[in-house]
Amino acid sequence: MTKALMARLDRLLANLGYGARREVQALVASGKVTFDGVPLKDAGKRIAVTADLPQHLMIRGVPVDPPAPLVLLMNKPLGVVCSHREDGAKIYDLLPRRWQIRDPALSSVGRLDKDTSGLLLITDDGDFLHRVISPKRHVEKTYLASLDRPLSGKEGEAFASGTLMLEGEEKPLLPASLDVVDEKTARLTITEGRYHQVRRMFAAMDNHVVALHRERIGGITLPGDLEPGKHRILTTQEAEQVFS
Ligand code: URA
């Protein structure tokens, strides 16, 4: 068994976004922070940072937020951006306010365009993030694309060929698979994450994507009952399903 990481209580609470070090120290001194129902009076006490921490550590009787590493599954709505740096409404605005100041910070695992909806993973676990987006892993991503014009019938072969070049690029795309849903709708599975890849693939076939929705990343499928803008916390085992 791996040894649990230990952290000072004040540092742990500050990193979870409950306030500056001084503020959380005052909170602890007020007796509002309890462990298994017993008030903790020493902000310097070292606490084992385990996934079940919220079952033990409470603030005013409310379980603390789950500690890092945290993996979230979001149904990204249209109109929000994944980048911290871009202007406009962000995926992070859809999360509890405290989570926006957590340390380590939460980041999306790859990006979806502002006008793409669907499955998005968000994490503060850099190792997990890099494993998912690593080009070596070839994690599959499936998108449902609605198109402006009827499919020509040539897309499946072109996408599967491993020779399709996107405009302005020097390396051909890896083979991708296309399932036709109807004459203007297709499911496309890719294993890379190039900039605007799906839209550019259909543009290379003289078509235009009018709506794009990600349904799956590896072994994780967007749950049908998760409304746009909502998220769910994944257990470590659920998050690892992405590689299955
Ligand atoms: N491909 C795109 O073109 N856009 C996305 O958001 C994801 C994949």
Mind explaining what this structure looks like?
The protein is an alpha+beta fold. The protein has 3 domains: 5-63, RNA-binding S4 domain (Structural Genomics Hypothetical 15.5 Kd Protein In mrcA-pckA Intergenic Region, Chain A, Roll), CATH 3.10.290; 71-135 and 219-243, Alpha-Beta Plaits (2-Layer Sandwich), CATH 3.30.70; 141-217, Alpha-Beta Plaits (2-Layer Sandwich). Helix content is 18%, strand content 28%. It is built from 6 helices and 15 strands. Strands 7, 8, 9, 10, 11, 12, 13, 14 and 15 form a 9-stranded mixed β-sheet that branches. The chain has a 4-stranded antiparallel β-sheet with strand order 3-2-5-6. Strands 1-4 form a two-stranded antiparallel sheet. A hairpin with a 2-residue loop joins strand 11 and strand 12 (185-190). Helix 1 (9-15) packs across helix 2. The radius of gyration is 22 Å and the shape is elongated. The mean pLDDT is 97. Residues 112-113, 116, 196-199, 212 line the site of uracil (URA). Uracil binds next to helix 5. Residues 8-48 form the RNA-binding S4 domain. Responsible for synthesis of pseudouridine from uracil-516 in 16S ribosomal RNA.
Any descriptors?
single chain; 244 residues; alpha+beta; Structural Genomics Hypothetical 15.5 Kd Protein In mrcA-pckA Intergenic Region, Chain A; Alpha-Beta Plaits; nine-stranded mixed beta sheet; binds uracil
- Report helical residue fraction: 10-25%
Number of distinct beta strands: 15
CATH superfamily of the largest domain: Pseudouridine synthase I, catalytic domain, N-terminal subdomain
Mean pLDDT: 97
- Stretches where pLDDT is under 50 for at least 5 consecutive residues are none
Instruction: Give the class-level CATH name of the largest domain.
Output: Alpha Beta
- Tell me the fraction of residues in β-strands, as a range: 25-35%
Count of discrete domains: 3
Q: Describe the global form.
A: elongated
Gyration radius, in Å: 22 Å
Q: What gap, in angstroms, lies between the N and C termini?
A: 23 Å
Number of helices, counting only DSSP H or I runs of 4 residues or more: 6
**SS-based class:** alpha+beta
Enzyme class: isomerase
Keywords: Isomerase, RNA-binding
GO biological process, one term: enzyme-directed rRNA pseudouridine synthesis
Catalytic activity: uridine(516) in 16S rRNA = pseudouridine(516) in 16S rRNA; a uridine in RNA = a pseudouridine in RNA
